[in-house]
Amino acid sequence: MSKPLVKIRNLHIEGRADEEWLPIINGVDLDLYPGRVLGLIGESGAGKSTLGLAAMGFTRDGCRISSGTVEFGGVNLLTLTRGQRRSLLGKRIAYVAQSAAASFNPAHKILSQHTEAPVYHGVMTKAESEADGMELYRRLRLPDPDQIGFRYPHQVSGGQLQRAMTAMAMSCRPDLIIFDEPTTALDVTTQIEVLASIRDIVEQFGTAAIYITHDLAVVAQMADDIKVLLRGDEVEQADTRTMLSHPTEDYTKSLWAVRSFERTEKAPAPADETPVIRVDNITAAYGKSADVLHQVSFNIHRGRTVAVVGESGSGKSTVARSIMGLLPPKKGRILSNGQALPASYKQRSKEQLRQVQMIYQMADTALNPRVRIKDIIGRPVEFYMGLKGAEKERRVEQLLEQIELDPAQYMQRRPPELSGGQKQRIGIARALAAEPEFIICDEVTSALDQLVAEGILRLLARLQDELGLAFMFITHDLATVRAIADEVVVMKEGVVVEAGPKGEMFTPPHHPYTDLLLSSVPEMDPDWLTRVLADRGVDNIGDAAMARMDNR
Amino acid sequence: MIGSLLRGSLIAVVLYVVAISLPVLSEGGLSGWWQAANEVRLLKWAYWIAIVIAVAMAASWVFRELLRRTMPEFIAKPMRQAPLTAAFGIMIILAYIVVAVGAPVIAPFGEAEIFEKINVLPGGDAELGGDPDHFLGTDQIGRDITSRLIYGARNTVGIAFLTTVLSFILGVTLGFLAATLGGWIDQLFSRSIDVLMAIPQLIFALLLMTIASEWSYRSGISLTWFMIFIIAVLDSTRVFRLARAVGLNIVVMDYIEAAKVRGETLIHIVFREILPNAVAPLLAEFGLRFCFVFLTIASLSFLGIGIQPPLADWGTMVRDLSQFINFAAYDPLTAALPLMAAGAIALLTVAVNFVVDWMLQNTSGLKE
After folding, report:
1. Helix spans in A388-449 (H)
2. In B, which residues are within 8 Å of A365 by CB distance?
């Protein structure tokens, strides 16, 4: 084999936290050969982004490389001066960030940002680079490649922007590109086209790449080799197929097993049972703008989970806001146990408010960072149940035990001292404290790592069995749907396109949109992307497929 | 920013002194240097400035070490990371508090005690028109200047503190209400505040104080209370703006929404959910506002309508003693009298700003 392009030896990186340096990466080795794609996976905090950036000889603010070497093409990047390193970055090493929307400068047109690096490094003239940009856009299958570069970043969609960013990284034909979670912020239907075009262009130019992600199914499609990280240590590395079929370490096996959690579907509720929540022909709009919900109706029965799926902008969160009374519907009503609820939360009684609780997507913003855990959970206990003093304290302890956190350890802490999964559990406890019949779970697992997310799903399932709760589960992740739902409601552009028991939803025939959604979810099989592309054709994925469906 | 300015000027002064001293030192040794230093005027000043800064730095270093070693952990821990400037600021503020609280004990004479000898010159040398009992001399109606400087700390700082607290209670409450309720209430509050801010603050304060002096005369309530209220209202406009801006960023959080749909009252949302998250920027602003209020009171007093005699106040003292500055050519100490009150104001302002800088850096990660 040829010499490695990137050779990292015994790398230690430390981060500064509260007066001392804590290790982030503990002596990791990494070899990347020209033209290969290495997938870095691990939970958040595993150090995958830090390692990816270190391959460029760069560390984030507040971090330092304490020992080790990072060689790129035989040169130790760590001993170079800033100027020398700058001549490599952008030219021979490029970086694609997670959020293209945040990484593009909104004040400049896409193509003029594209030409910046080649002109700076003297690789091409501006005119050459512009022509080359259009060529790259064509290869990345962006619509209207000759014109799209003259738009501003906010004028193109998220998936297109991420591809434009990949084109920008390609502008100097680098030897190495680092992709840091490039599709994490995208919907499944958009993700697939970005994956296809990234894989395509990396193959065409024989570029070596480091692909950082927490999504195993995605990395299975993209990488030749996979390296698994856990808290700054390497767990194992192997080529993709071996890694998927024969993981050796227990940690890797547990990662692989996450997607297997599946609950058996409950029998549908008897037809004459009054649903806990009935959404009856709701039409809603924000302010005076166009309607975002069109005559949405569905029922949620006691002890059942209804998953509402659809991509961003499909109106699934808006339905939740209408049920909560935060967005009073223009037409239609919400019924709780057969009784109509007032449209706005301001007119609802304390008892009506208590019955409908919500768990939020971002536990970071859902919990007041300055309030102690015992007060966060204690407040609804006191507010709704009227418990005080020792009684209240006992109830909070009981709730913490229910969500599997040790009361002695967590009562006095504040949210910033907890991990993401623990915060989400506190969010669940706060909802439970009101002793509701119905809880809305708004993307509760999408910000979490898969292992942690699975723990949350199991907890919710257990609580449902114990307390007979009804859940409305908003999600865009079909693996989650498969794991927890009894019934599924598919939404698109504010309309319910399909609804029914879970078993029916995962067996054809489908509404074409459901079909598109289902077939866009990456699977662990490394041949999945190739197969989908062969089945549907390269021009029938993502935005293009959506457009085709609308025309039909 | 101020820290680096200080460091820069200190280095410049030291370099200057060294550059001038070297040739003198090589000729006449230490005694020759001392003599030369006293002859060359500029060098003398540089020499004194260097000594003052060095002493201040040494004192704040000792003070910081003292806090680090003797204080309980919750004070010692932040002090381990605190820069010297912050320690200096805290030290000065503490000193002012001690002087303000203990004024009756520390001051040699009463605040309004009048002696027979008027216009006694400072220095305490009887041959030059001084008096050993009154080291800084007496003013034009025979009050001891040292005592009045000490009592001034009590009045000026105490009143400024009260005014700032009042303006924060007012501004923060209204600002958070505007941020939470939005709509026409926000418009009403914000536009009213705009109207108040459109009029130059000092001139507006002068106008209102003139009106208030008539009210004070009729009602018998001390003009000082009117002044506290007027400055608090005028200054709360700035606090309102900050509180509203900070509040707007907090009310969009999900935990506020969660509190709303739980059915919480407005008071709970404003004081239990929003306020704890806004403490850091508000505290930093408090430090700055305190300085501005302090200066406004001093300026009003200087103009003659602030704190009224016989209460001692630094602003009034600057005005009363201002004519002494004409003696600068004959007696520097006499000329420095009005500057002492001004210096007391300046020192506290600098100290408060050092502490605020440090707090801002801690809370927002603001770099120099």
Report:
1. 389-402, 407-410, 420-433
2. 253-255
